Amino acid sequence: MSESKLPGGTFNLASGFDVTRMGYGAMQLAGPGVFGPPKDRDEAVAVLRDVVDLGITHIDTSDYYGPFVTNEIIKEALHPYPESLHIVTKVGARRDAEGGWPHARTADDLRQAVRENLDRLGLEALDVVNLRLGGFAGPETGSLAEPFGALVELQEQGLIRHLGLSTVSAEQIKEAQSIAPIVCVQNHYNVAHRVDDDLVDSLADEGIAYVPYFPLGGFTPLQSAELASVATRLDTTSLAVALAWLMQRSSNILLIPGTSSRAHLRDNIDGASLVLSEEDLRELDGIAL
What we know:
This protein is α/β, with parallel strands linked by helices. It has helices at about 40-55, 70-80, 105-120, 145-155, 170-175, 195-205, 225-235, 240-250, 260-270, 280-285, and strands at about 10-15, 15-20, 25, 60, 85-90, 125-130, 160-165, 185-190, 210-215.
């Protein structure tokens, strides 16, 4: 499949920096709970090579997936990287021995995280680094000036090309923009979790990408009567409908569904390619938030 056949076309993150709206999230390449090695490393490598062969130019990852596992597999599978491929990573957390996700936001933490991402990915500069502030439950209150400023310094040193944010509020986004430009925001959002509806639209007006994580529900797959009804009418799956809804929701939305299976990778692309009718969209709008 060539890039032109991927659903949604491309999005311009910055000058000379286009990515396919259909991307790939590497989180599931690690073991259960995003911890430890995958059950089938050869399949993980094969999935990544299929990602590139299918024309996807946007891979989302982090050194704390595993930890370290996904970046090591990405390097093994794809290095030296195609010129068209853009790898987006995130910093601001780490993994503890119990598999937790404690914050790691001091300037020293962030400098170390950026250099470890560079080393494990085999890169001299990172295309995009997202600063993760909240947890899986959502954004946390407080200023991001200190950690974001630390990343700006690394950007000025040439180690980061572009900056983004993850799990943040609209207020934190505005604070970051008062310090330096951002190219993307990565928050929890899907057809059933739509607290960021207004934010998606405001970022679209600014030409900033919105990258929903947990597009299919995360650790608990999406389920609803409305999704099931639309899926039955279209003779497809609920998860395919959920991806298609995101693709049609706004042209600044970039999808990064993850999988450790080549077959599921193709299913995700097919799902995002569905065209939902106005009737379908009205029914999906009825899903309880």
